[in-house]
Amino acid sequence: MTESSTAPETITTSSGEIQLLMTASEAFPALERAVLSAQDRIVASFRIFDPATKLHSPEARAIGDDWFDLLVHTFKRGVSFDLMLSDFDPIISYDTHMLTWQSLRQIWSAAELAGPDAKVAVRPGMHPARIGLLPRLGLWPSVRKELREICGWLNTLEPSHRRSALRHLPGLCTCLGDCDDGSTKMRFGGPPFLFPASHHQKLAVIDGEQLYIGGLDLNDRRYDTLTHERAADETWHDVQLLVRGPAAAAAETYLTQVRDAVDGKGNVQIQVLEPVPRS
User: What is the distance between the alpha carbons of residues 79 and 228, in angstroms, rounded to a whole number?
Assistant: First the structure.
């Protein structure tokens, strides 16, 4: 089963139409169709955005098998694509830090395949919050233990796979180094910076007119249907909205402000979105 057999509920408000997407079986196809409908631009921010995610709508499946194919198709059409992808602490959350950089590199590869005219801007978004010096000193023994475990894992890999993994772990470049035999070791130094928070938003704005927003990241792990066919510990249920109306333009302004704040462009004032009243 790839899509719900029940049409998603649509709520009409003074700010436009809101479509309630109860599961990923409704949400993922809706996002695919929205991207296919884009004429000018897509502005988005996700915590996880995996280009290897399978496509589900018939329209997108006619193009390819996964989001990598859909991105190449979209870039070739001349649609600009601006994505901030959450980054994570490279020590405590090294696996998700690595996933972020794997996804970024796949999107850059899609842009290269699309050709020199592709208008693609993707960036990692590390939350600016940092743990202070005194807590870092107290946590240093635990952090050293984490780094030793990361080194141990890296050294179980074949050399070529280890080099590939390190390319996707740029946040560890100051903490790890190479031994003479090619294995990975800890560098000597003081407590590294620790990043305790991550941006936790999942939204995309298409042409300033459609807003896809909610709790679902984009990967196969998040896919679920109304029948919840997976085992309980493998089921992920969250809700998305597809909004058509002024809220989309407001969300695009918000995303631009967040991007500027993450890029360090001065004292950026983030516009808070007002709740939409039900008519």
Answer: 35
Percent of the chain at pLDDT > 90 equals 72
Rounded-to-integer distance, Cα 278 and Cα 275, Å: 9
Is the separation of the CB atoms in 82 and 49 below 8 Å? no
Which tokens go with 277? 């009243």
Say if CB 8 and CB 19 are below 8 A apart.
yes
- Third-level CATH fold of 1-129+195-271: Endonuclease; Chain A (3.30.870)
Q: What is the DSSP letter of 239?
A: -
In the chain, where the domains are located: 1-129+195-271, 130-194
Question: Closest Cα partner for 187 from 169, 174, 200, 168?
Answer: 174
Q: Is 84 in contact with 258 (CB distance < 8 Å)?
A: yes
pLDDT in tens, 233-257: 777 778 999 999 999 999 999 999 8
> What is the per-residue pLDDT for 81?
98
Cβ atoms 75, 39 nearer than 8 A: no
- Entry field: residues in the chain: 279
* Rounded distance between C-alpha atoms, residue 59 and residue 198, angstroms: 34
